[in-house]
Amino acid sequence: MRAPAAATAQGPRVSVQQDSSNSPEHNGDAGTAQASLINKIKVHIAKGDKAAEKAEQHYVAAGQYLKQLKANHTGTWEEWEALLKSKVGIG
After folding, report:
1. pLDDT the model gives residue 27
2. Which of 5, 17, 41, 61 has the fewest beta carbons closer than 10 A?
3. Could you give the angle at the alpha carbon of 47 between the alpha carbons of 54 and 56, nearest 5°?
């Protein structure tokens, strides 16, 4: 943390900010923590990608069933729209 600069009798006092993460006693812990966080990030990105792929598969399957439902529907367009809204929940 940087200490505020203060004026002295010899002139302005300038403080130097030290980054303790570069000191040898902190490099191991910081490196381990960083590696752990990076691993967690990668795992969650991979899981998100997998979930997105799975979601896409579900939407494709739903579309295929919707196509079959439409092919078997013998009513009017208004009845089709009503069916989608009331039974399927889309419209």
Report:
1. 61
2. 17
3. 20
